[in-house]
Amino acid sequence: MENNTLLPQEFIEKMATILPESLSLQEFVDSCHQPLRRSIRVNTLKISITDFINRAAEHGWILSPIPWCETGFWISIENETSPLGNSFEHLAGLFYIQEASSMMPVSALFHYFQADEDKTLLDAAAAPGSKTTQIAAKMDNKGLIIANEFSSSRIKMLHANIQRCGIKNVALTHFDAKVFGTWLPDSFDAILLDSPCSGEGTIRKDKLAMKNWSQIAIEDIASMQQGLIESAFQALKVDGVLIYSTCTLSLEENQNICTHLQTKYPDSVEFLSLGSLYEGAEKVITAEGFLHIWPQVYDSEGFFVAAIRKIAKVEVSHAKKRLGKIPFIRPTRQKEAQLYSYFSKQFGIENIDGMLYQRDKEFWLFPDNIKPFINEIRFSRLGIKIAEEFGNLRKVGFKTQHEFVTTFGQLATKNIIELTAQQAQSFYQGVDIRDINTSKATGEALASYRGVIIGLGKGLNNRFKNNLPRELIRDNNLFEQ
C-alpha cells in the first residue's frame, strides 16, 4: 500500500477490514487524495430548474445532474474570475453550494415521507443549513421545520443561509439534541439527524480532517451518537420517518448506531431500504438497506444514510420544564389590517400566509404549525421579522425588513427599481445608487436585478438609498458586470 501523509496507517488498515470486496483499497486511498468535485443545489423557492440552467449557460457553467437529487448538479467553471459564492445567483439565494453526498439524506427522507402544510419536521443538527434549506424547498416553504444547532458559533451562519434562501417556515433552537426525546416526545412527523461525527469522509475537502483521528475518539463519538439517535426516535411520532446520516465511514458511527437503536427498541424500529432511491444505489447498499457511500464510487465525499420508521410508541420520561414567557403577543386586528394594507399599497403584495405576532414595535411572521410548540420549548429565533412600526397615535408608519423582501419580494408588482449589473454590484457593496430614475417609486422600493428582488431601499431625487443590512454587505470581487 502506497504511503501517504493524509491518512493514518491505522485508519487505512481499519478501512481494509470493512471495505466491500467489490472495491479496491488502493482506489479508496487514491480517491481521498483527489480534489472534491464542486456541486450546487438549485433553490426552487426562488427559481425553476429550467431558468437556472439557462442562467448557468450564460455564465459558461457546465452542469452535470446528481442522480439522487433532482435539484442538484456538479458544476465546472472555466475562466473563473470571482468565487462562486460571490456570484449574483448565490448572493440572491438562487442556489446553494452543497456537497453532492450531503444532498442524499433529504432525498432519502422524502422518498418515504409525504410533505404537506400540516407536517412538522426536526433537523436535529442543522448548521450551516444545507439540509434545512433543502427540506424547506421540498416542502415549498409550508409546514414547520424546527432547525436545531448545538454550536452557538454556527447559529448565525444557519440563520444567514435560511434568510438568503427566502425561507419562512423555520424556527431555530439552540440545544444539545439529546433534549428533544424528553422535551417533545412523539411530536415530529419526520426527523433528520445528520449526526456530528469523526468526518472520515471529508478528507477530500478538508486536508486536516484526519489529523486527530484515533480509534478511541471514534468510540467516544459513537457513544454520543447513541444518545442522539435514541432521543430523536423518542421525539418521532408513530409512523414517522427518521433519517440518520453521517459524513464518516466507520461501522461504529454508522451501522452500529442503527442496530443499537433496534436493539433498544426491537418492537418499534423498522429499517427502510434505500436501494431504490436512485439508479446506481445498489453499488453502495448494505444488507440492512442503508447507503454506505465510499468516495471512489461516485467521485464524492464518503457518507452514510439510513432510513428508519417508528412502528410503535416507546416509553419516555418526560422532562420537567421551566420556560419563560415568550415576549410576543398577537397584534390587534386593526394593527394587522394596517400592516397588510401597507404591503398591498406599497408593493402590491397580497395573501401573506403565517401568523402575525408583535414584540414592542416589531412585527414577526410565525409558521402556522408553531402553536403547539410555543410553550413547550425555548426558541433562539422564531419566524421572520417583516416590519417595524414608527410614528405616534396620530400617524403610524411601517418600515419593511429585509427578511420580508427575501421571502415575499417576488410577489411584488409595484415600486420596483430595476438595476443594471454595475448598480447591482454597488447595491451589494452597500452603496447608494445615484443617477437612477426613481420617478416611478414612492417611499420604500424594491431593488431588482434581472427580475430577481435583491433588497430594499428608498427613492430620493434620482438616488436610490440602500437599506441592505450591514452584515450582508460584500466589499469586493463580486460577480462580473
Description:
The structure is a single chain. This protein is of the alpha+beta class and 481 residues long. 28% of the residues lie in helices and 24% in strands. It has 14 helices and 22 strands. It has helices spanning 9-18, 25-32, 49-59, 88-91, 104-112, 130-138, 152-164, 180-183, 215-235, 255-264, 295-298, 333-347, 402-408, 421-428; strands spanning 39-42, 61-66, 69-77, 95-97, 120-123, 144-148, 170-173, 188-194, 236-246, 269-272, 291-293, 303-310, 355-359, 362-366, 381-382, 384-391, 396-400, 416-418, 433-434, 444-449, 452-459, 463-466. Strands 5, 6, 7, 8, 9, 10, 11, 12 and 15 form a nine-stranded mixed β-sheet that branches. The longest helix is centred in the middle third of the chain and has 21 residues, at 215-235. It is globular and about 75 Å long.
Question: What descriptive keywords fit this protein?
Answer:
481 residues, Rossmann fold, Nuclear Transport Factor 2, Chain: A, Archaeosine Trna-guanine Transglycosylase, Chain: A, domain 4, 3 domains, five-stranded mixed sheet, 14 helices, 28% helix
Q: How many strand elements? A: 22
Task: Indicate the CATH architecture of the largest domain.
Answer: 3-Layer(aba) Sandwich
The CATH homologous superfamily of the largest domain = Vaccinia Virus protein VP39
Q: How many discrete structural domains?
A: 3
- Radius of gyration equals 24 Å
Span between N and C termini?
A: 50 Å
Q: How would you classify the quaternary structure? A: single chain
Uncertain spans: none
Main sheet record? 9 strands, mixed
**Helix segment tally:** 14
Helix content: 25-40%
| Overall form | globular
Structural class: alpha+beta
> Strand content of the residues, in percent?
15-25%
CATH topology of the largest domain: Rossmann fold
What is the residue-mean pLDDT, rounded to a whole number? 94
CATH class of the largest domain: Alpha Beta
